[in-house]
Write a structure and sequence with these properties.
281 residues; mainly alpha; 2 domains; two-stranded antiparallel sheet; 6 helices
């Protein structure tokens, strides 16, 4: 008779080991809040989670780009508003200088202020930038491209301009010769200012439209992100109540297995004792 194999104990150990693994899995899911903590838990679900994560990261980056686009448009609008105010002041001075009652000294003072304003416009155009990107001092005419989606091709073009006064390619270059010493020159200056203000207002309109588009895009991205997160949650989030129940069941089986193995491990020794008693008798 062979007493080396305790089959009942082995069977109980197999069930104990399975319950222990189930208990560990439930604890991991409860602790992390996720149904899938490693690929082996659910290969297909893990692949879904990876796809959702990639899409969410793309959307988050697109939303950041949209917010940066809003900031850039607002920076441009601030610079343009400043230039507009200075242009309006130059026009007022040109009207004042064209008045025949102004003497030479007055006109010289007006000319000095006009020249300073033209220089300030030039400085504003050159200093209006974001992260070193020229917005109002760009002669390329290509504008800037911002990705506003998780997929290729989803983008918005941000216009850029050259509103400098000391560059022949600048839209406001005509102001570089601003002169108020004669009535004819004052009239020419007023015409140039009117043309410049028209271009500035056109640029403001474009930046306003771009800003609105970025804001709308950001809202849409937020809505899509919520849907993607909901889908990801359905795919990998754990049912805490169900896992608590599974954990409790597994714990009962584990404790019972320990107790039963303690008993079944005595079987060979008990049988051996009986045989020894029989032999002694």
């Amino acid at each position: 008779m062979r007493l080396t194999h305790n089959i009942p104990s082995l069977n109980i150990y197999t069930k104990y080991k399975s319950a222990l693994a189930s208990q560990s899995t439930s604890m991991a899911r409860i602790s992390s809040g996720k149904r899938i903590n490693q690929t082996s838990d659910d290969p297909y679900g893990k692949a879904q989670d990876t796809n959702f994560t990639m899409q969410l990261r793309g959307l988050q980056m697109a939303n950041q780009n949209a917010q940066d686009g809003v900031s850039l448009a607002q920076v441009a609008e601030g610079g343009l508003d400043g230039i507009n105010s200075m242009l309006q002041r130059i026009r007022d001075l040109a009207v004042q200088a064209s008045n025949g009652t102004e003497n030479t000294s007055d006109k010289n003072a007006i000319q000095l202020e006009v020249s300073n304003l033209v220089q300030n416009i030039n400085t504003t155009a050159k200093s209006t930038n974001m992260n070193g990107i020229n917005i109002l001092n760009d002669s390329s005419g290509q504008g800037l491209t911002a990705m506003i989606g998780a997929n290729v091709g989803e983008q918005i073009t941000i216009p850029t301009f050259n509103f400098t006064t000391d560059n022949s390619s600048g839209a406001l270059y005509s102001l570089s010769t601003a002169d108020v010493t004669t009535s004819d020159n004052c009239k020419t200056l007023m015409d140039n200012v009117d043309s410049a203000m028209s271009q500035i207002n056109s640029a403001l309109s474009k930046y306003g439209a771009v800003e609105n588009r970025f804001n709308s895009t950001s809202d849409n991205i937020g809505a899509v992100s919520n849907e993607v997160e909901a889908g990801d949650s359905d795919a990998i989030d754990t049912d805490i109540a169900a896992e608590m129940l599974n954990y409790s069941r597994s714990s009962i089986v584990v404790q019972a297995g320990i107790a039963m193995m303690a008993q079944t491990n005595k079987f060979p020794q008990d049988v051996l004792s009986i045989l020894q008693n029989i032999r002694a008798n």
